[in-house]
Amino acid sequence: MIEQIKTGILSILVITSILMSSMLWYSAPSYAPLLTVMNIEQTQTSSTQYNLDDIVIPREFVAIEEGVEYSRVHPSSNVFNTIYDRIKSLNITNVELVEEAYQLDGITSNRAIEMRFFNKMPVEYLGLVFRIDSNELNKLDTLVHKVTLFYDNDEDRSRILFEGSQIYIANTNITEGRLAEIINLASSTAAQRLQATDFAKQTIRVTELSNSLFPDPTAIRQIEEVGQSVIYTDGSRGLRINHRLQTLDYTDPTAEYRYREVDFATMVQEAIKFLNRHHSLVGNYILAQAIEVSRENNEYTLVFQQQYNGYPILSTRELAISEISLKMKNNRVIRMNHASIYLGQELERSVVNVISAEDIKTIIERRIDISDNTHDIYLGYYPVNVDEETIQLRPVWVLTHGSVTRNVFDAVTGQEIRI
Hints:
single chain, alpha+beta, TATA-Binding Protein, ten-stranded antiparallel sheet, seven-stranded antiparallel sheet, about 40% strand, globular, membrane, Regulatory protein YycH domain-containing protein
């Protein structure tokens, strides 16, 4: 009797947790994608194991000439792969805070290569890219959104900048000649051409997903909600499917008590294992954001961005297809949010010429002041012409202010798309 009461109380807690919380997240070929999640109908096991080295991919590389942006390299090119291979695992030493403007003279007068990310990332993220010991890493008291490599002629050595709310400078072991080769590669990229593609619109098979998420499928109970939502629960975990919003929300309150050791790399690896274990979507994802919810309580939110041909897919108000959000506590997944639909088979494809970064900036500046350092642009894909059966992805230029998407422009015509 007591056990039945405990089970009933836990079931109520699970359902209450789902009902009271809202979705956290609505808002190019690629370099070693984080994971390719197979349709659960095609396979029941993941045949690929992913390492931490595979998941940290910058949004793009930007070649800088005398302080001015010269060209961009996106993940759709082999040049991107070559540059990233040469930059990964550089040794970083002698980190110091930039307190005087003269410390940046070398970067404004020389050529440089920038790594830009989707969002500001915690410094632990950098430990997944570079060789930097914990003492040096702890000096970086900031979230980082851009990393710049350049050769300082005055110091006669390669230097690296980490930029966030503050700027830090450090030494690195890349040679002047090797760095020049990388910048030359980035500067030689041709005009951008991207695909505009129609996909079949597919819906996740709830039965198969719930069988994967719940250890004992025979214990699953189904609860109908008002507003076209259904909750599946086994008394310990809950899966809420919102058919109107086309989203799903999975919670496991018991997971946080199973593991106590907290380490950023281990936490990310645990998230990858979870996604591999419950492969329910078709697509490629990279780690795009890591939010520290509470260091004291060991809580983080990891956001995995869906890519098409290595470029990010944006969500619309009606279609939250771009991201998978995992809430982590004590290195375990206690919550997962993402769309209940996915991109199926490619139906039709065309190749289009994309407006250059300089040209789109000119178009934007006619309407919006983007002269400060808080605005940025990048290429991505936006779902258009969405109906019951198909989704079309169209190339767009995305204007951000800080880490927030502000405007979206058709990358072919330059016209603004209302979001």
